[in-house]
């Protein structure tokens, strides 16, 4: 069986080493997911640029999308990372578990976002009419719809990379549902 190793700083290109240095300075470490992207000359910079793009969505809303997508795709790495990030963005452990189970009863707008995201991911972009109508009724618009799809796409990339490779999770492990 192929073993996928996360590269060290010395094993990546100079341009990726510079990104590692910025991540180390900003986050205090280089998450294994980001380090793994650095096996490719441009993937890490491209991925970080996509994550850093301007959005109509608040950080908390993006975390909802990240959590839902990672749960549906069965990515334990991203479930774990976004449990930490979700807490940093104001969610409680119980709220994160509820989001992972497919609802946000504590906030009607976020609940519509959970359901819409769930429908997008489960139906490969063919979200149900009901979830779209609830999304728009909750106050989102077509610009937000585009941003939701960007975040889903971002998360599918990282979910698939980890699901294919299974490298070590370097965040506290998310609870099993």
What this model shows, in words?
With 177 residues, the protein is mainly α. The protein folds into 2 domains: 9-51, no CATH class; 59-165, Up-down Bundle (AhpD-like). It is 64% helix and 0% strand. It contains 9 helices and no strands. The protein has helices at 14-27, 32-37, 43-51, 59-72, 76-88, 93-101, 108-122, 129-137, 142-165. Helix 4 (59-72) crosses helix 9 (142-165) and helix 7 (108-122) packs antiparallel against helix 8 (129-137).
CATH topological fold name of the largest domain: AhpD-like
Strand-and-helix sequence, N→C?
HHHHHHHHH
Summing up helix and strand content along with how strands pair, one would put the structural category as: mainly alpha
Biggest pleated-sheet summary: none
CATH architecture assignment name of the largest domain: Up-down Bundle
Averaged pLDDT? 97
In brief:
The chain has 177 residues and is mainly alpha-helical. Helix content is 64%, strand content 0%. The mean pLDDT is 97.
Secondary structure topology:
Blueprint: H1 14-27, H2 32-37, H3 43-51, H4 59-72, H5 76-88, H6 93-101, H7 108-122, H8 129-137, H9 142-165
Helix pairs in contact: 4-5, 4-6, 4-7, 4-9, 7-8
What key attributes describe this structure?
single chain; 177 residues; mainly alpha; AhpD-like; 2 domains; 64% helix; 0% strand
């Amino acid at each position: 069986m192929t073993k996928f190793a996360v590269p060290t700083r010395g094993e990546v290109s100079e341009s990726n080493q510079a990104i590692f240095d910025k991540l180390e300075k900003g986050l205090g470490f280089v998450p294994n997911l980001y380090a793994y992207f650095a096996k490719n000359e441009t993937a890490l910079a491209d991925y970080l640029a996509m994550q850093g793009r301007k959005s109509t969505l608040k950080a908390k809303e993006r975390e909802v999308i990240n959590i839902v997508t990672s749960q549906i795709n069965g990515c334990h790495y991203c479930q774990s990372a976004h449990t930490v990030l979700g807490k940093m963005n104001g969610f409680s452990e119980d709220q994160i578990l509820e989001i992972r189970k497919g609802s946000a009863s504590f906030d009607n707008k976020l609940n519509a976002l959970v359901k819409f995201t769930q429908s997008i991911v489960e139906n490969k972009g063919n979200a149900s009419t009901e979830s779209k109508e609830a999304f728009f009724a909750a106050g989102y618009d077509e610009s937000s719809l585009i941003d939701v799809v960007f975040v889903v796409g971002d998360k599918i990339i990282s979910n698939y990379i980890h699901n294919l490779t299974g490298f070590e999770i370097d965040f506290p492990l998310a609870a099993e549902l």
